[in-house]
Specification:
Elements lengths: L5 H5 L11 H14 L7 E5 L8 H5 L3 E6 L2 H9 L8 E5 L12 E7 L8 H11 E13 L2 H14 L11 H18 L2 E16 H9 L11 H19 L5 E15 L1
Parallel strand pairs: 1-2, 1-4, 2-3, 4-5
Antiparallel strand pairs: 5-7, 6-7
Helix pairs in contact: 6-9, 8-9
The chain binds S-adenosylmethionine.
The site of S-adenosylmethionine has 20 residues, from strand 2.
């Protein structure tokens, strides 16, 4: 676990560059509690827990929550949100492809915006299946990038692609869509039943300037595909493009975000 990864680098700005607010996270937690018919003793595991935004409301509701992550810095950000780590929360620095738990340990395993970041997703799914209790729930959740921000990213990608050394790749939402199909096939082949639900829809608004600042701080993987020197040139060109295209850096971009859940239960 010694190696610093991309999430270590961006841990301190991660939350501000996303769109899940505390109040939305609270509503999503209530939705999840109802979806899995949680009892006071229901146990939750979130591999790739990151800065803890998804499970913090479950911890506050006194459920037993375990979060694991490969990034020590992301876990530290989570710890900073708490005065002290409460007894019903266990945070573990580990790789989700080798879950350090006995078989049938958890009632609910939740992953949010995570599977596409795991190198060996098939092994990871085997691990989820192994640690789930009979009749337990696996919730594969995504908080897809809102359309206005996707469009903003598309413009950035268009400029970036003109520069030396940039390798084209699929947009993030496309990668996630493909992984979700694989996840569905995997759990159906294991006899799980699935349902798709939207836990929450809400409007996300940012000024162009705010979005630019996220890119300037290299909050997204795409920003690391070129050298520092080229990145500075890309940002200069992108800022000029935004000023012209949006009319002003103060322009507000609003669109709808969705917290989607693919829920799997062993039949
Ligand atoms: C996009 S972030 C999502 C964080 C959190 N689930 C959320 O919704 O805000 C992906 C997280 O998964 C973690 N991660 C990636 N690969 C992992 C692995 N193999 N094992 C454990 N954590 C991993 C990253 O360190 C990062 O914190």
């Amino acid at each position: 676990m010694g190696k610093r990864n991309y999430y270590d680098t961006i841990a301190d700005i991660y939350d501000q560059t996303r769109w899940l607010t505390e109040s939305v996270a609270e509503e999503v937690a209530d939705f999840i509690v109802e979806l899995v018919n949680a009892l006071p003793e229901t146990s939750f595991l979130e591999p790739g827990v990151g800065t803890g935004s998804n499970v913090l409301p479950l911890v506050r509701r006194r459920y037993a929550v375990t979060g694991i992550d490969v990034s020590q810095e992301m876990l530290d950000q989570f710890r900073q949100k708490l005065h002290e780590v409460p007894q019903n929360l266990s945070l573990i620095h580990a790789d989700a492809s080798q879950l350090p738990f006995p078989d049938q340990s958890f009632d609910v395993v939740l992953t949010v915006h995570m599977i596409h970041t795991v190198a060996n997703w098939k092994t990871f799914l085997d691990e989820i299946d192994r640690v789930l209790k009979p009749g337990g729930f696996y919730l594969n959740a995504q908080c897809i990038t809102p359309p206005a921000r996707m469009e903003f990213e598309r413009y950035f990608r268009m400029i970036l692609s003109k520069y030396e050394g940039f390798r084209e790749s699929k947009p993030g939402n496309k990668v996630i869509e493909e992984i979700n199909i694989n996840v569905e096939e995997y759990f159906h082949s294991k006899g799980y039943q699935s349902t798709y639900v939207v836990a929450k829809k809400w409007t996300v608004s940012n000024t162009v300037e705010e979005l630019l600042s996220f890119f300037k701080s290299r909050a997204y993987g795409l920003c690391w595909r070129v050298t520092d020197e080229i990145f500075a040139q890309v940002m200069e060109e992108f800022e000029a493009f935004c000023a012209e295209h949006y009319g002003s850096l103060e322009t507000e971009l609003s669109s709808e975000a969705k917290f989607e859940i693919w829920s799997y239960t062993a039949s």
